[in-house]
Amino acid sequence: MSEAVAPPVLGLILAGGQARRMGGGDKPLLRLGGLTLLERVVARLAPQCGAGLALSANGDPARFSGFPGPILPDPVPDQPGPLAGILAGLEHAGARGIARVVSVSGDAPFLPEDLVARLQAAEPQGGIALAASGERRHYTIALWPSALRDDLRAYLERGERRVGAFIDRNTAAVASWTVQPMDPFLNINTPEDLAAAEDAAPRSEAAGRGGGRSAGK
């Protein structure tokens, strides 16, 4: 008997941060080894997402004109943070009958090539599966049921903002990756991080297939 095939997911790249520690602007458009961070994230994520990609970003979408999918502004006012971008992805997916969204950071250029498969394997019934590396949980790199969109909208409209607190309200599980030879979730927050990523780039292929384990909440 053949194994059941997991339904395709929508890949959601979060690009709404204000990049204050980088001097402002769009971090995903910074260049690393001849490619933008966004191009590197797309190259890693797109093959894993059968329902395509979307980008969470506010402002003029023309600056992301080469992106292979829709640009989704926050669906709630006042730019309340990454949960607003995740809500945009869940509502976009839900309106199209897509049951799952995997969110990733737009400044994490070395995402694992088994990210979606491992999150799907860890996913609890009706809950959220999030990524971890070493002892650190990455709350914005996670697999979300689009059925949570109404609950998430109500959470934001009450003035709540914390991603971890919303995850803690729900059933959750963790898929963990090793940080050796490098952390596959290395993200770029400062010029020093970008320099470190330049040094890490030659090791990224091995890290992209890094192993790990899954665990419950």
Topology:
Blueprint: E1 10-14, E2 31-32, E3 35-36, H1 37-45, E4 53-56, E5 71-72, H2 82-94, E6 100-105, H3 115-122, E7 128-133, E8 136-145, H4 149-157, H5 163-168, E9 172-177, H6 191-200, H7 204-208, E10 212-216
Parallel strand pairs: 1-4, 1-6, 4-5, 7-9
Antiparallel strand pairs: 2-3, 6-8, 7-8, 9-10
Kindly describe this structure.
This protein has one domain (10-216): Spore Coat Polysaccharide Biosynthesis Protein SpsA, Chain A (Alpha-Beta Complex), CATH 3.90.550.10. Helices cover 28% and strands 22% of the residues. It has 7 helices and 10 strands. A hairpin with a 2-residue loop joins strand 7 (128-133) and strand 8 (136-145). Helix 2 (82-94) packs antiparallel against helix 4. GTP binds at residues 14-16, 27, 74, 107. Belongs to the MobA family.
Structural class by helix and strand composition: alpha/beta
Q: Roughly what fraction of the amino acids lie in strands?
A: 15-25%
Main β-sheet description: 8 strands, mixed
Q: Kindly state the number of beta strands.
A: 10
Biggest sheet strand line-up: 5-4-1-6-8-7-9-10
The helix count comes to 7
List keywords for this structure.
217 residues; alpha/beta; 8-stranded mixed beta sheet; two-stranded antiparallel ribbon; 7 helices; 22% strand
Brief rundown of the structure:
By secondary structure, the protein is α/β, with parallel strands linked by helices. It has helices spanning 37-45, 82-94, 115-122, 149-157, 163-168, 191-200, 204-208, and strands at 10-14, 31-32, 35-36, 53-56, 71-72, 100-105, 128-133, 136-145, 172-177, 212-216. GTP binds at residues 14-16, 27, 74, 107.
